[in-house]
Amino acid sequence: MLINGLQKLTLLDYPGKTACTVFLSGCNFRCPYCHNAGLVVRPQEQPVLGEADFFAFLKKRRNVLEGVCITGGEPTLRADLEEFAGKIKQLGYSVKLDTNGTRPEVLSRMIERGLIDYAAMDIKSSKSGYSRCAGVPCADLRAVQRSIDILSGNKVPYEYRTTVVRELHSADDMVRIGRWLKGAPRYFLQKYKDSGDTIQPGLSACEDGVMSDYLAIIREYIPDAQIRG
């Protein structure tokens, strides 16, 4: 596995666990607001951490870290993801997978094989706004829906999350998302932040009051919804 970034300590990315986060390049979406644009559109320019060095790091941190978050990009595009997750599990760590849900067959297989302990799936927008927010002409909503169906089986803890961008999302989107995901155990609205490395410059965050209004809409369908960030 070629690793393109490592955050050695996070108290936020993996709920309830002290973890590190590994970043993998490559993605099948081009979300305008993506804050890891380099991983998506310039993967060949990203630094590379060898797998041996990463596992040496994990062995040294056994008494400090409890989990590993695997994010991207879109990790499920990597052919060696399952082998990689298995090696992490063998060291006694819990694994959290971040995904856009477009490869449900990988998600399902990893859950069935016990390779992930927590899943976080991005919900880009309502169905009608999905392609716009995913940055591709025809986002595969059938695959996204299949991933939702897999997670709703509750074989692993999971969350959904939407990064809210003023120019891309509306109250109507929140109603439609709420209806779509009604009954989900955890859902987060994430306030957009310009990392300086986004795919489309010039986007902006919603005001706090708007975020609160959106949260109120979502909570009609998902009572435990929260704002993150």
What does this structure look like?
The chain is α/β, with parallel strands linked by helices and 229 residues long. The chain has a single domain, classed as TIM Barrel (Alpha-Beta Barrel), CATH 3.20.20.70. The chain has 8 helices and 8 strands; from the N terminus they run ββααβαβαβααβαβαβ. It has helices at residues 37-41, 51-60, 81-90, 104-112, 130-134, 141-151, 171-180, 208-219, and strands at residues 5-10, 19-23, 67-71, 94-99, 118-122, 158-164, 187-191, 226-228. The chain has an 8-stranded mixed sheet. A hairpin with an 8-residue loop joins strand 1 (5-10) and strand 2 (19-23). Helix 4 (104-112) runs parallel beside helix 6 (141-151) and helix 7 (171-180) runs parallel beside helix 8. The longest helix has 12 residues, at 208-219. The two termini are 30 Å apart.
Topology (elements, then pairings):
Blueprint (H helix, E strand, L loop, with lengths): L4 E6 L8 E5 L13 H5 L9 H10 L6 E5 L9 H10 L3 E6 L4 H9 L5 E5 L7 H5 L6 H11 L6 E7 L6 H10 L6 E5 L16 H12 L6 E3 L1
Parallel strand pairs: 2-3, 3-4, 4-5, 5-6, 6-7, 7-8
Antiparallel strand pairs: 1-2
Helix pairs in contact: 4-6, 7-8
Keywords:
single chain; 229 residues; alpha/beta; TIM Barrel; eight-stranded mixed beta sheet; 8 helices; 8 strands; 31% helix; 18% strand; globular
Characterize the overall form: globular
Structural class, judged by helices and strands?
A: alpha/beta
**How many alpha or pi helices?**
8
> Into which percent range does the helicity of residues fall?
25-40%
